[in-house]
């Protein structure tokens, strides 16, 4: 049977990139999975501490992420929703995998370099790098592999920026299985149609929680006024009319991409949608994008505000307690096989 697993870092309320690239797909899979499928979604707080976090802020962000996941439509009766740090087996399997993971492979991966703003060809042992680069950030992909493999996930829905990490997870599973017994499952990547949503202010970069300018991203909890302010100030160009041309018109094309993927029934493709909007002024076009975003996020925002009321604290902690109980049981079953295979 299918096991669906994915994770998101609690580093702020999710943005439209997280929503279109991942969360909406998570909900779809939840709603369409066969009854015997196991579905797990984790708030990966141990990944979040690979960069420095303030404890008060982190506690708040964990709660906000749980409320966000419920607001977009995840149902704790169907999906196991849990905090990564509540399930110790993730860290235990990480240790085991790290005994077989090669430093060479991890050195070539791009995330630690981009997090530290280092050039592509940096080595972890470069004199200027080795004190700045913490072991946890370097081995981030090993923990991510453990998240997936400890649940023997068959399918992992993510945005395009996670492809490299999933390739590494498959490599970890295959090499373990090759050297010991076949107990781990190499997972398949499921990319959503909106693989990569770009920043509103710098449309050649992906929309990200960590960019300093809050106008670069729309949060799933933004009010209509905030959505409108951000889209109206989105960087476009001075070419007349609307066309879909990501290379030459990245800003306008990103808005089309967002609008199309919010509701794929409005046109057959981004090109077709651009054709429908061809004669609109950019101003009028942006108004349509604002309406489309607001329309989709309205119910998410209302549900989120409700869940974040103090009287719902118990509800949230009951959901995460139940999630960690079920996820622990699932992970511990894998760990007995892994320990057995290793002679532990
Ligand atoms: P994170 O928290 O950065 O992002 C969560 C999900 O959102 C997707 N995403 C995007 N998709 C399209 N366009 C964008 N601009 C955009 N920005 C983010 C990401 O691809 C991701 O699917 N390392 C992971 C978390 C993780 C994980 C895992 C994922 C930890 N363990 C195991 C899957 C399986 C991360 O940092 O995601």
TrEMBL record:
Signal peptide positions (record): none
Compartment annotation: Mitochondrion matrix
Keywords: Aminoacyl-tRNA synthetase, ATP-binding, Ligase, Nucleotide-binding, Protein biosynthesis
Pfam families the record matches: tRNA-synt_1b
InterPro entries (UniProt xref): aa-tRNA-synth_I_CS (IPR001412), aa-tRNA-synth_Ic (IPR002305), Rossmann-like_a/b/a_fold (IPR014729), Trp-tRNA-ligase (IPR002306), Trp-tRNA_synthetase (IPR050203)
Keyword Ligase recorded: yes
Superkingdom to which the source organism belongs: Eukaryota
Matching SUPFAM superfamilies: Nucleotidylyl transferase
Chief location bin: mitochondrion
CC terms in the record's Gene Ontology section: mitochondrial matrix
A single GO BP: mitochondrial tryptophanyl-tRNA aminoacylation
Any GO MF annotation of the entry: ATP binding
EC number(s) given by UniProt: 6.1.1.2
Family: Belongs to the class-I aminoacyl-tRNA synthetase family.
Protein's name according to its UniProt entry: Tryptophan--tRNA ligase, mitochondrial
Lineage: Eukaryota, Fungi, Dikarya, Ascomycota, Pezizomycotina
């Amino acid at each position: 049977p299918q096991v669906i697993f994915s994770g998101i870092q609690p580093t702020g309320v999710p943005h439209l990139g997280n929503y279109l690239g991942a969360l909406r797909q998570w909900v779809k899979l939840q709603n369409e999975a066969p009854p015997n499928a196991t579905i797990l979604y984790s708030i990966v707080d141990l990944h979040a501490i690979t960069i420095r976090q303030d404890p008060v802020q982190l506690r708040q962000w964990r709660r906000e992420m749980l409320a966000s996941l419920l607001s977009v439509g995840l149902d704790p009766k169907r999906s196991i929703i849990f905090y990564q740090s509540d399930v110790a087996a993730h860290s235990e399997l990480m240790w085991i995998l790290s005994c077989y993971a090669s430093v060479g492979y991890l050195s070539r991966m791009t995330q630690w370099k981009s997090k530290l703003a280092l050039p592509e060809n940096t080595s972890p042992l470069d004199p200027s790098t080795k004190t700045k680069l913490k072991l946890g950030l370097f081995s981030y992909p090993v923990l991510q592999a453990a998240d997936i493999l400890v649940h023997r996930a068959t399918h992992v829905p993510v945005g395009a920026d996670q492809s490299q990490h999933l390739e590494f997870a498959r490599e970890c599973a295959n090499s373990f299985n090759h050297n010991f017994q076949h107990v781990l499952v190499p997972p398949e990547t499921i990319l959503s149609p909106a693989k990569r949503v770009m920043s509103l202010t710098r449309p050649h970069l992906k929309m990200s929680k960590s960019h300093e300018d809050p106008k670069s991203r729309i949060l799933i909890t933004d009010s209509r006024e905030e959505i409108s302010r951000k889209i109206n100030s989105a960087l476009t160009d001075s070419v007349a009319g609307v066309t879909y041309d990501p290379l030459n018109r990245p800003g306008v094309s990103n808005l089309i991409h967002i609008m199309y993927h919010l509701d794929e029934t409005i046109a057959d493709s981004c090109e077709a949608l651009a054709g429908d909007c061809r004669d609109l002024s950019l101003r009028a076009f942006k108004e349509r994008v604002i309406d489309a975003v607001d329309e989709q996020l309205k119910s998410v925002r209302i549900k989120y505000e409700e869940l974040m009321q103090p009287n719902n604290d118990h509800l949230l902690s009951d959901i995460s307690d139940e999630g960690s109980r079920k996820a622990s049981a699932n992970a511990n079953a894998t760990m007995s096989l892994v320990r057995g295979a290793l002679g532990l």
